[in-house]
Amino acid sequence: MDKEHALEEMMGKLGDFGRYQGFQFFLHILAAMTAGIHMLSLVTVAAVPDHRCAIKGVDSQNYTEPWNSSLVTQLIPLNDHGKLESCKMYAVNKSLEDCQSWVYDTQYYTSSRGIEWDFVCHRRWMGAASQTVYMFGVVLGSIVLGRLCDSFGRKTVFVWSGILQLLFGASVAFSTGYYMFVVIRFLYGIFGSGSYIAGFVLTMELIGPSRRTLCGVTFQVMFAFGIILVAGWGYLIDNRFYLQIVYALHAAILLPHWFLMDESPRWLWAQGRARESVAIIEKALKMNRSNEVIDTPALVSNCKLTSTKYTEDQSSGTLGLFRTPNMLKKTLIICGCWFANSVVYYGLSLNAGKLNGNPYFIIFLMGVVEMPSYIIIMYYIDRVGHRALISVMMLLGGISCLVVVALPHGSPAATGVVMIGKFFISGSYSIIYKYSAELFPTVVRSSGVGLGSMCASVSGALAPLISLLDTLNPKVPTIILGFLALLSGFSTFLLPETIGRSLPQSIEDGEKFGIGDTCFTNCSGRRMSEISTDIPETMIPLDVKKS
């Protein structure tokens, strides 16, 4: 038997999706839900409601003058949108002066870090910095944890990330000062998406081709469900301490995974740990009620022949993504796609509280609007392919952002177009995880997805800072998001299609994968059934070279 196909014969016996894969997949996707909660928790925990200058001698802790009273309108000017100015008030001589303290509209929020520490006006940067620091923690986590996934295993990183999510998530609630809060949120961010990265790679390495699209998109569905939970818990719990504790406790559902979840058989095989890999497959076959028989001695022998090659590839780590021309091109473009998708996705999501209306309902809609996008993705992806869908949805998302600029600020039409933009960007974002996992070879797959996730985290960290540019002009942030989406949408034309294609295993396979395949040579994808029948009938063929 060809040594490169020994693993594929074993994995092929499982089939694409059985009882075992379904159970493991359920365990994996729980990490997506917790990641969504952690990522967007600050939107409610540190919410900044409408505010105005506190009037000395009138407003106090026990009493706030009605906002529409004649006294308030005499002392506080109106802004360009006809609302009370948030940062200025009239001095005794009728000149404008900066606020010294503030009072907040308590219709939706009575307790938040934003109210407690006054994340407004000249202190507004503090709220943006809190989210930016979290995202930079995610950046570091993407680099370190992606590499640790390849070195120490997907399961180990998954479970330890869950433990530390719980620890640091709860610690955030106990923070007594701003800088303590920021430091703990940085640590919280490192592990906030660690289980997501490991869980996604585990799924892609276990599930067969016919179910990879559905499973990949389901990860994004669960992330969106996490956003919905952020809105739901925020509506029910109007206390920033208990709210943060509840958000953190969701990570506890990942702890039993140490006993319930298995390591990736592909990773074990790549490490030369054939007996452990075969044992998991035998367990899976039994759970799937399959009559297939595994030839353990032959498989172990074949694994020993390939372990040296895998070890050499494994040692290249993230650098292996940049050492050859085709790998370099694909890596740079896909990282650009991650960057643009993330900055637009989080730019829209994190600013949900600034849209007119009930902020909890707006956040809820931000999660719900993703669902129909994912349904469309699942229906069309095998018909038009990853490349075409990512390109079209990013281009339409970018156009939506630019359309918002032309609409009246705070109008229902603007809110509606923002939701349309979120619809398209969510769709492209859902594809990029799976697309990246299929572009990168197995030996650096976690590192590749981790690198892409790092780029997404960097741009996600920039999203709150970009929103601060509205002090120059309210339209500037949206224009930036729109042009980034358009640029990335066009660049995706140069990537190869992966639908129904064999996944590369080694760095050499990765360099050969997709050469000459661009939108200009084949602008649309093809149905799986139309892909070349030369692909071996195995679960996910990784190398079609002949021995």
Automatic annotation (TrEMBL):
<feature type="transmembrane region" description="Helical">
    <location>
        <begin position="214"/>
        <end position="235"/>
    </location>
</feature>
<dbReference type="GO" id="GO:0016020">
    <property type="term" value="C:membrane"/>
</dbReference>
<keyword id="KW-0472">Membrane</keyword>
<feature type="transmembrane region" description="Helical">
    <location>
        <begin position="157"/>
        <end position="180"/>
    </location>
</feature>
<feature type="transmembrane region" description="Helical">
    <location>
        <begin position="413"/>
        <end position="432"/>
    </location>
</feature>
<dbReference type="InterPro" id="IPR005828">
    <property type="entry name" value="MFS_sugar_transport-like"/>
</dbReference>
<feature type="transmembrane region" description="Helical">
    <location>
        <begin position="125"/>
        <end position="145"/>
    </location>
</feature>
<dbReference type="Pfam" id="PF00083">
    <property type="entry name" value="Sugar_tr"/>
</dbReference>
<feature type="domain" description="Major facilitator superfamily (MFS) profile">
    <location>
        <begin position="86"/>
        <end position="500"/>
    </location>
</feature>
<feature type="transmembrane region" description="Helical">
    <location>
        <begin position="444"/>
        <end position="466"/>
    </location>
</feature>
<keyword id="KW-0812">Transmembrane</keyword>
<feature type="transmembrane region" description="Helical">
    <location>
        <begin position="388"/>
        <end position="407"/>
    </location>
</feature>
<dbReference type="InterPro" id="IPR020846">
    <property type="entry name" value="MFS_dom"/>
</dbReference>
<keyword id="KW-1133">Transmembrane helix</keyword>
<protein>
    <recommendedName>
        <fullName>Major facilitator superfamily (MFS) profile domain-containing protein</fullName>
    </recommendedName>
</protein>
<feature type="transmembrane region" description="Helical">
    <location>
        <begin position="25"/>
        <end position="48"/>
    </location>
</feature>
<feature type="transmembrane region" description="Helical">
    <location>
        <begin position="331"/>
        <end position="348"/>
    </location>
</feature>
<feature type="transmembrane region" description="Helical">
    <location>
        <begin position="478"/>
        <end position="495"/>
    </location>
</feature>
<dbReference type="InterPro" id="IPR036259">
    <property type="entry name" value="MFS_trans_sf"/>
</dbReference>
<dbReference type="GO" id="GO:0022857">
    <property type="term" value="F:transmembrane transporter activity"/>
</dbReference>
<feature type="transmembrane region" description="Helical">
    <location>
        <begin position="186"/>
        <end position="207"/>
    </location>
</feature>
<feature type="transmembrane region" description="Helical">
    <location>
        <begin position="360"/>
        <end position="381"/>
    </location>
</feature>
